Structure formats: structure tokens, C-alpha cells
TrEMBL record, chain A:
Organism, as annotated: Papilio xuthus
A Gene Ontology molecular function term of the record: structural constituent of ribosome
GO aspect biological process, one term: translation
Gene that encodes it: LOC106124245
Keyword set includes Ribonucleoprotein: yes
Localisation: Mitochondrion
UniProt keyword Protease present: no
Disordered: annotated span: 112-131
Name assigned to this protein: Large ribosomal subunit protein uL4m
Gene Ontology CC terms, in alphabetical order: mitochondrial inner membrane; ribonucleoprotein complex; ribosome
Entry's family note: Belongs to the universal ribosomal protein uL4 family.
Automatic annotation (TrEMBL), chain B:
Family: Belongs to the mitochondrion-specific ribosomal protein mL49 family.
Name the UniProt record assigns to this protein: Large ribosomal subunit protein mL49
Biological processes, Gene Ontology terms: translation
Organism: Papilio xuthus
Record-level Gene Ontology MF annotations: structural constituent of ribosome
PANTHER family: LARGE RIBOSOMAL SUBUNIT PROTEIN ML49 (PTHR13477:SF0), MITOCHONDRIAL 39S RIBOSOMAL PROTEIN L49 (PTHR13477)
GO cellular component, as recorded: mitochondrial large ribosomal subunit
Localization (cell): Mitochondrion
Length: 284, 192
């Protein structure tokens, strides 16, 4: 495996200088034969000034062995941001909390059965004063300030922390070589063995998250991933920090990578007063 | 909706009475009912049975719908920007804003502009004005080299040692004291 890769690199290094073809935003035609390589150079609306764009290989899914179909540029503001672990953690906490409703419940002294009668007279017995056997002081009494059920933990994380969480997570994935870009999601078969072999062959780790631009994936991959609980498909609008943390490898299609880039770049360069407003429960 | 309309009717009758001639195509404020002189006897419009039915308002103007009219350009001019526009290059800017220069990109460190094309240099005042911290954000490249250069420059300008604090992960440097103008001039001289 490694020797094959090294050989491929040697060939590329030898041939890359004279044969690089620069294509502007027509990546779909980027196909390599043995010695030629197409590099997609992109025209961004907000071109990076200082940090260089990150380059990733475009891979394929139609063979088990990995084929490099070309190089693809990713915007550094989105895919090479500083991986702020604290922001990723805040996103994680937010995503676990906003959907959490706590159903823990205790009875107060009023709800515990009995205790309506004064257990003994106030004076004359030499005993402590008590008015009810269900007082919180008593064994078997009600609970003072205990949990009451149906408690929501919903809150909204500030808008730019959500954006920054996504960029941090994507950048961390790319930096750790856990982000792969594929040309499309077309598989030759609908057998899950094929996909499992492919993941095994490419060393993609125990779990894979596949992101596509559209929410209708090709039939073969939906059938193949249906019986693989550790391989999941998600549309671009479902991309979130929690899922990226949960899965080992992130596989983006070309269109998805571009779409994520475009949306995040837009929010990084737009007036976001509306999104930064205080969240109201009735606003959706 | 019906209840709202009916209550409007009652309200309108109290307020404007006969004077309202319904000038535009505004919702017909039940003018049909008040064609004649206003009767002194009251009618109970809070009653469902007595209130008038809502009718379709007659269109008073003729219009036709066209796609992409030439006037749409003027409407577009009024719409808010989708994103913050790129600065148009000029000889000088009357506001005193200084554009970033090309050669700054070749330095080992870089301070990028904010999305509003301003320098990310801020003054944080805390402890009731007792502590002033100048913060330089969005630093890319070698932040420690920038720190050294900036410290040397500040020592030269301020005539004394100036304490700084580098946050590499947060990509910012904090300088103890109010040095916003000094640092801003320094950043402009570097071309950021």
C-alpha cells in the first residue's frame, strides 16, 4: 500500500510541473490518467489574503482502491481556521443540552400522601415541634427544592460561535487527515460489504459521515449504508459539530464542500445583526 | 380575522363616521353601512349575528403584472446589501480610512481586516477605567515575531517598557495600556 503511494507521489512529482492544467471552476471534468493531473483553482468571492488555500485530493467511490482524480482547493477561512477546542466544546454542550428535557421528579410535602394531622401537641411532651409527618425534615417526607419534571435545558449558542464551531471542526478534521472529498456518491453495487471493504481499504476508521449537497442520495449508497450503523449520510444543511465529532471520518462530495464553503463564507462576510438577535421561542 | 374586522368597523364608526371617504384601496371600513346619516341609536357590533359580512374589496385601479421592469433597478438600489461590499479603490478617502497595502502579504505575520474593512485593534476598559487593555485581533502567521516587533516599537514610541500578552490559539495580542493610536499607526505603516 505505502509503496504504491510512494510510487504514485514520485510519478506525480516528476510530472506535476509540466503537466498541471489549471482549470477554473470546472472540476467535474477533472480526470487523471497515470501521469497527468488536474488542479482546480477556484475564484472565490472573498479570496484568502494571507493564508494559503488548502488542497485536497478528489477521490472516487466507484472502486475499492483509492483513485486520485485531481486536486481541489478549499478556502482557508473555512477549512484552515484555528481549531478552537473550547468553541467546539461549547457547541457540543449546546447540542446535547438544547434537546434535553429532564424528567426527574420528586414529590413535595404537599404531594406525599398523608401528613395532614399534627403528629403530637406543640407543647408539654418535651419533644421537637412538628406540624406534619411529611415535612422535609422527616424520613419519608417530601423533598424540598427537588427536581420537578419537564425541565427543559434549551438555550441558543450565539450565532458566531455556531459558525466558528463549524469552521473549527472542519479545520480540525482536515488537519487530522480525516476529511475526504469525493467526486460523487455513485457506487457500483448496493452491497454493504463493498462499502465496508472500501472503508477498510482506505483506512477511514470505525465510523464515517458522508455529506452530500442534496438530500436525495443515489440508491446504491443509501441501500449500502442502511445496514451499516457506523456509516451515515447527511445533507449539507444537517452538518453539525456533534455529528462530526461522533464520526471518525468526514466524507464530503465536491458539491457539498463548495456549498459549505459558500454558506460559511457568506456568514463570515455578511451583516449578521438579524442572526445575532436574542433568540425568541416564537420566532421559528 | 372576522372578529378583527368587525371590531375595526365599530371603532371606525366611532372615530371617523361619515368623513371617511375611503380614499385609496384601503380595507373598506364598512362604508356601505354608513351611507346615510349616522343614526343615533347604537348597533351592537360585538354581536356576531348583527355584524356585517366581509366582502371582497373592489379594485379601484387597473394594473397588470410584468416581469423584470426597468424600474426594478431603482428598487434594487434600496435593498440592503447581501454581504458587505468590497471597497472601490480611490486616490484618497475623505473619511480618513486607509486601505491595506499589497506588500503586507509578504511579511511573516499578518493582521487581516474585519469584514467591515477596519483594523481589528480595540481598547478594553475595565475596573471602572482603571485598567486599559489594547487588543489586536485576527493575527495570522508568526504571532510571536509580531509581538517582539510590536514590543520594540512600543518601547521606542512610549519611552518605556510595555507589557504584552500573546494568545496564540485565540490569534490576539493584548497590550497593557491605551496604545490604540500608536498600534493603529504602526499597523498602517506595515500596510495591514
Amino acid at each position: 500500500m505505502t509503496s504504491v503511494l510512494i510510487n504514485a507521489f514520485k510519478r506525480l512529482n516528476l510530472s506535476i510541473r509540466p503537466q498541471v492544467k489549471v482549470i477554473s471552476s470546472s472540476y467535474s471534468t477533472a480526470v487523471t490518467t497515470a501521469n497527468s493531473l488536474n488542479v482546480t483553482q477556484k475564484e472565490w468571492k472573498y479570496p484568502p489574503l494571507y493564508t494559503k488555500p488548502r488542497e485536497v485530493w478528489i477521490e472516487n467511490l466507484d472502486t475499492v482502491e483509492e483513485k486520485k482524480l485531481g486536486l481541489f482547493e478549499l478556502h482557508p477561512s473555512v477549512y484552515a481556521a484555528m481549531p478552537r477546542i473550547d468553541i467546539i466544546h461549547r457547541n457540543f454542550v449546546w447540542q446535547t443540552k438544547y434537546r434535553w428535557v429532564s424528567w426527574a421528579h420528586t414529590k413535595t410535602r404537599a404531594e406525599v400522601r398523608g401528613g395532614g394531622r399534627k403528629p403530637w401537641p406543640q407543647k408539654g411532651l418535651g419533644r421537637a415541634r412538628h406540624g406534619s409527618i411529611r415535612s422535609p425534615l422527616w424520613r419519608g417526607g417530601g423533598v424540598a427544592h427537588g427536581p420537578r419534571s419537564g425541565k427543559t435545558h434549551f438555550f441558543m449558542l450565539p450565532f458566531h460561535l455556531r459558525i466558528h464551531g463549524l469552521t473549527s471542526m472542519l479545520s480540525a478534521k482536515l488537519a487530522q487527515d480525516d476529511l475526504h472529498v469525493v467526486n460523487n456518491l455513485e457506487l457500483p453495487t448496493d452491497e454493504s460489504n463493498y462499502l465496508a471493504d472500501l472503508i477498510e481499504n482506505r483506512n477511514w476508521g470505525p465510523s464515517v459521515l458522508i455529506i452530500d449537497d442534496t438530500d436525495i442520495a443515489p440508491r446504491n449508497i443509501t441501500v449500502a449504508t442502511d445496514s451499516l450503523p457506523h456509516v451515515n449520510i447527511m445533507p449539507v444543511y444537517g452538518l453539525n459539530v456533534y455529528s462530526m465529532l461522533k464520526h471518525d471520518t468526514l466524507v464530503l462530495t465536491l458539491a457539498a464542500a463548495e456549498r459549505i464553503e459558500e454558506r460559511i463564507l457568506h456568514h463570515l462576510n455578511a451583516i449578521t445583526t438579524e442572526q445575532q438577535r436574542e433568540f425568541k421561542l416564537s420566532q421559528v | 380575522m372576522a372578529t378583527v374586522w368587525r371590531s375595526q368597523c365599530a371603532f371606525a364608526r366611532l372615530l371617523i363616521g361619515k368623513i371617511a371617504q375611503n380614499p385609496n384601496n384601503s380595507p373598506d371600513l364598512c362604508t356601505k353601512l354608513f351611507q346615510g346619516p349616522i343614526s343615533v341609536t347604537s348597533r351592537n357590533y360585538s354581536n356576531y349575528a348583527n355584524s356585517p359580512f366581509i366582502e371582497r374589496i373592489k379594485e379601484q385601479y387597473e394594473y397588470d403584472i410584468i416581469k423584470n421592469p426597468p424600474e426594478w433597478a431603482y428598487v434594487e438600489r434600496l435593498l440592503p446589501f447581501d454581504t458587505i461590499p468590497v471597497v472601490t479603490p480611490k486616490e484618497n478617502y475623505p473619511s480618513g480610512w486607509i486601505p491595506p497595502r499589497e506588500e503586507a502579504v509578504h511579511l511573516p505575520y499578518f493582521v487581516s481586516r474585519t469584514k467591515n474593512h477596519e483594523l481589528p485593534i480595540y481598547l478594553n476598559i475595565t475596573y471602572r477605567g482603571m485598567r486599559k487593555i489594547t487588543k489586536i485581533k485576527k493575527i495570522e502567521g508568526d504571532i510571536w515575531l509580531l509581538n517582539d516587533t510590536l514590543k520594540a516599537h512600543l518601547k521606542e514610541t512610549a519611552g518605556k517598557y510595555v507589557e504584552t500578552r500573546v494568545h496564540e490559539l485565540g490569534k490576539f495580542i493584548e497590550v497593557k495600556g491605551d496604545y490604540v493610536n500608536v498600534i493603529r499607526n504602526w499597523a498602517h505603516s506595515k500596510g495591514f
